[in-house]
Every structure is written in structure tokens, then in C-alpha cells.
Amino acid sequence: MKINVKVNGKQYERDVEPRTLLAYFLREQLGLTGTHVGCDSSSCGVCTVVLDGDRAVKSCTMFAVQADGHEIMTVEGLAPGGALHPIQQAFWDQHGLQCGYCTPGMMMTAYALLKRQAAPTEPQIREAISGNLCRCTGYQNIVAAVAQAASQMAAPATKQAVKA
Amino acid sequence: MFPAAFEYQRARSVDEALAILAKHGADARILAGGQSLIPAMRYRLARPAVLVDINEIRDLAYLREQNGALAVGALARDALLETSPIVSRYRLVADASKVVADPVVRQSGTVVGSLCHNDPAGDWPVAAIAGGASVVVRGGKGERIVPIDEFLVDSFETIVGDGEMAIEVRFPTPPEKTAGAYYKIERKVGDFATVAAAVRVTLVADGTVKDGAVAIGAVGPKATRVTEAEKLLRGAKPSLDLLRAASDAATKLADPIADNRGSVEYKKAMAGVLVRRALAMAFERLGIGGLQ
Q1: Is the dihedral of CA B156, B161, B163, B168 positive or negative?
Q2: CB neighbours of residue A1 within 10 Å
Q3: Between A42, A127, A128, which is nearest B39 by CB?
């Protein structure tokens, strides 16, 4: 079945079997391996991508055909020009990852969260990422990273001032 | 594992969805949020030959108060309820909307889909029973409004017939002096409920209970109304003894199976505990504290 889908701003036309899951379409047909696959049953959240701008979805639990006519953003889309997105920079600054396996999903969940809620409280951040499992960090630095990203994305001017 | 092959059909209106369903009968399933159906297909527990995707029927993504009820369309996702100000006075519905699966799953999963899936450990069937909900079911021959107790037939089975689809669930607007609560025990966020309980009580002016609804989930083949506890509540004065008696009725009725979430004894005991906690919370929300 032919589908047209925009991924990270680029339009793709591909032929897919209806049963192809979005995560596998992104990884195997588009070569975007930043989206990881973990539990394969919507529990762990490593495959999280953003659908239509502000909705986080676990791409192992959505068919690629459902994305026909829609827009997907993967972790690769965070830094199209190579410069780190504030969320990526914050994960770097706060040491929000160790092995990195959960990181793309964490970042995309954080991205959708900050689109819907620009200034989340710490409990809200913890709640928002509760469907994304990390087995390394104990979450503390991930929460700190999302909080940093939120404040920098809300006030880019302040960030410049701090840097200077 | 990958799902078995199927034919994908995208419906752009309810009529279009019904036409596809009419053509394929029992071989077709509706795909809404997909958060239960797709995993079930992956485990090959479900093998529909045709999937009718209703995600493009934006008309069904509504959440509104009308005709004395909160009307939740078939494409209204859990996250919509979680953040909606109009849901906040439907305390039981608001409680449930915050604990379904996990926050990412709630951005896809739908209330009506959960009812249609009717998982014995699902949140919405329990909440819908205590909330006195009814479901609007539409087919080629027209529409019927089905009370939730009739709608939920058995494990993974509802009254929705071949060629029909559920298009809306209605939670009646709580009358004055009414509150509810929803509680569940889960091992971790996103796991199936170990035990769940939902209640709703209405008081009369002198503080006695006019009416009470109590339901438990994950402790039997389907979510169950605890009729005995409801009888005890009617006309009674809120008290620790009353809560204990209602709790005992839930423990007695609970008929769970032992699994890695707990033994039969544990789950039966927790069904009672959750009913007690939920009732205490509902009464507290009505200004009657000290029952925790």
C-alpha cells in the first residue's frame, strides 16, 4: 500500500505492507535508526516519536499506514542542521543518559510535553516520562535535563545572557 | 512478533466505517487508539482480516456536556479527558483518566476503545459501571443506547454486533451532592491493574446516602458491580462500619486468579481495601472526612 508521510520535514512516498509497524518503517525503510525498539509492546517507550507536532506516540504500537498524510518527528529531527536542540543540549549538560538506549524516546516524550506544557513542574515532568523506562540513570538527571530544556526553550534570551 | 497480514481501510466518516463493517462482518475490527488492539494483534491474540481505521473521523474526537451527560466520542483520547476542565466535576472519570496505562499511551488510547476491548483489567469498564454510563452503538439499522452493564458482556466481549460500532460513551452529569473516586493498584506505571475499584455516592440533605455505585475490576472475568455494597450504602449514614461492610462485600464478590501480580487472597483483600479507600475519598470530597 502506497503511503505519503512527512518525516523530519522531508516528504517520503513508500510502499508498505499494512502490518508494518511505524518503528520498523522508520528504521528499516527510511534508515532512521535513532528510533529504538525495546519491549515491542508499548511498555518501555524507547520507540516514542512525535506525531503531527505535539503528540507522543510509541511507534511500535502504530502502523506505518496510519501515518499516511501525517507528519512524524524522530530524534533525528531535533537537530536537522547538526546543532543540538535545547533538549539534547540539556541531556548533555545534565548527564541525562548513560547507555543511551532510552534517550531518543525520552527526548521525544519531553519534546511533546514541552509543546503542550511549556513550564512543567518537577512532578509533572516525572509523570510525563513515567511511560519511558530507563534502567541506568535513576531518572534524576533526566528530570533535571527536561527542566533545563523547559527553561531554556521558554527564555532563549536568558540563556544567551547566562552564557555571556 | 508482527501482526498477521490484514487489509487496511481508512474510514472518513461514520457512515463509511459502517459500510466497510457491513461488508466484512465479523472479519473486521475498528482501529481507534490501537493501544490494546495492536499489541493483541502482535501476540496473535487478535487476527482481524480487515482493520477499519477511524482516526481520520475527527468528528468523533469530541468531549462535551450535552443532555445531562458528559459525551465522549469514539476518538476522544484519554489525554483529552485528563486535561479537560469540564471533566473535573466528574470526579470518578477524572481520576480514572489520570491513571490509564501511561502518559504516552494516553495520548493515543481512547475511552470508547477501552470499553470495546473490555479487558478484565481495563480501567474504563470499572469506571463506566460506577459512573452509570451508557454507550451509543450504531449500525446499518440505526442507533441504540446501551446501559454499560448490558454493554460489557464478558472478557473481551461486548454487545457490539457485526456491522456495528460504538460511537460514544455517556457519563450522566452528577446530581448535587455527588462525588466519586477511582483507585487501582499497579506494580508499575503502565502495567495492568492488579486490582481496581470505582465508586460514586450521592447524599441527601441530612447526610445519608441516597444512592451509591460500586464496581471492582481485575478480580474476575470482567469488571463487576458490587450490588451488595450498593444495597448497604442506600439510605445509610457514612461511617467506618458502613465502609467496612461495603469493603467486605467487595472482598467476598471478588473472584480473581492468582498470577505474578498477586495471590487470590491478596487480590480479594485488596478489592475490599480499594473499595473502602474509594468510598472514603468520595465522602471526603463531599465534606465528610475521617473515614480513611
Answers
A1: negative
A2: 14
A3: A42
Say whether B104 and A132 touch across the interface (CB within 8 A): yes
Same domain, A60 and A95: no
- CA of A162, closest CA in chain B: separation in Å? 33
Q: Which of A125, A110, A54 has the alpha carbon at shortest distance from B79? A: A54
- Of the candidates B34, B53, B189, the beta carbon closest to that of A131 is on B189
In the listed set A22, A47, A78, which residue is the last one of a domain according to the structure? A78
Q: What is the CATH number of the domain that holds B98?
A: 3.30.465.10
Q: What is the 3-state secondary structure (H, E, C) of B109-143?
A: CEHHHHHHHCCCCCHHHHHHHHCCCEEEEEECCEE
Please check whether residue A161 lies inside any domain of the structure: no
The answer to whether residue A163 sits within a structural domain is no
Identify whether residues B168 and B184 lie together within a single domain.
Answer: no
Distance between CA atoms of B187 and B51, rounded to whole angstroms? 32
The structure's pTM equals 0.95
Residue B290, domain member (yes or no)? no
Mark whether B24 and B88 lie in a shared domain: no
In this prediction, the answer to ipTM > 0.90 reads: yes
Instruction: List chain A residues with CB under 8 Å of B102.
Output: 45, 130-131
Q: Are residues A54 and A102 in the same domain?
A: no
pLDDT tens for chain B, residues 1 to 292: 899 999 999 999 999 999 999 999 999 999 999 999 999 999 999 999 999 999 999 999 999 999 999 999 999 999 999 999 999 999 999 999 999 999 999 999 999 999 999 999 999 999 999 999 999 999 999 999 999 999 999 999 999 999 999 999 999 999 999 999 999 999 999 999 999 999 999 999 999 999 999 999 999 999 999 999 999 999 999 999 999 999 999 999 999 999 999 999 999 999 999 999 999 999 999 999 989 8
